[in-house]
User: What shape does this take?
Amino acid sequence: MNKKIETKKPQEKTASIAKRKISAWEKLNIRLSAKEKVLFIKYLHVLLKSGLSLNDALDVLLSQSTGPLKKILERLVREVESGRTLASGLSYYPHIFSDVFVNLVQAGENSGTLEKNLEYLAEQTQKQYDLRQSIKGSMMYPIIVLVGGLGVSIFIIVFIFPSIISLFETLNVDLPFATRMLLFIANTITGRPLEIVLGIILVIILFIIAAKIRPTRYILDSILLKMPVVGTIICDSILSNVFRLLGTLLQSGMPLKQSIYITESTVSSLPFRKMFDDLDAKVTQGGELVTVLRNYDGIVPIMAIRLIHVGTQTGELENMLLYLGDFYGKEVDELSKRISIIIEPVLIIAMGVMVGFLAFAVISPIYQVITNVS
Assistant: This one.
């Protein structure tokens, strides 16, 4: 299916709905938690799916809501009743509803696929919420173990170890390598704490500055995408999001060029943004997506490129993109679960090695003293 191609000047690449403005006080006080946002989208989708009109669905939600969500719904009801769109009302709250969110709602209203687009938004928002909760849950125990282990280790190195070493020095004990290494760490921490703290702060500042410089950030993003396991998760996660979003926008009747532009705005990884810039230029010239994607087979798998080519030839590009989005989403879920299972025992082993090193560094000179006395 050949999509209509729009040719827009760069300055015309803006959202179809201008952002409405609310006061700074409203922006500060009207906020939704991730859970509230998920429930709002889900309930609105269910009510529309049941056959209610948009006005009636908003009225039902308004009667059941309290707090900030009620204020948002009051404005949405006023906007819709005055003949404007739901997207117009949502654009008042860019700190809650992103440009992509508003554009998807607008595309759904224009094409009569609002219910389907809300279903997609509900699924994506739920996935993001579940991912954050999963990361918090899976990392809580390892973080507690890591912080506790490091705290105990630093306490031993700084406060207990030096007094033991002074005893060994009075006995003229020849300290083993592990003990001398630990002594060096202890002397460094206790002797130059200010320099260590300033050094850490300086490294962090330099990293932040480097990450803001585009060429350096491009290199950092490229390295991150090529890292084992972590790079695979990041790459597959981006592919899942952009394929699903692009497919949903095309299904809503949005032109391919505008769909590419909106999808690109959701991506922060510079190698992917460069790919979308090239896609945008190629589509403007009347070319096909796969012509550009073949140049990015380092971040887009060959299988995905071939399926997109098939979808383009058969007129099923939207459905193929949605399929690929679901496929890579499942890949990310499975890999994340495997990592969360592995990370706990690996961390415990690492802590065991650290404790073992500390114990060896302290016990080995004591054993040497006992041997000499014997």
About this structure: Residues 34-126 form a domain with the Receptor-associated Protein fold (CATH 1.20.81.30).
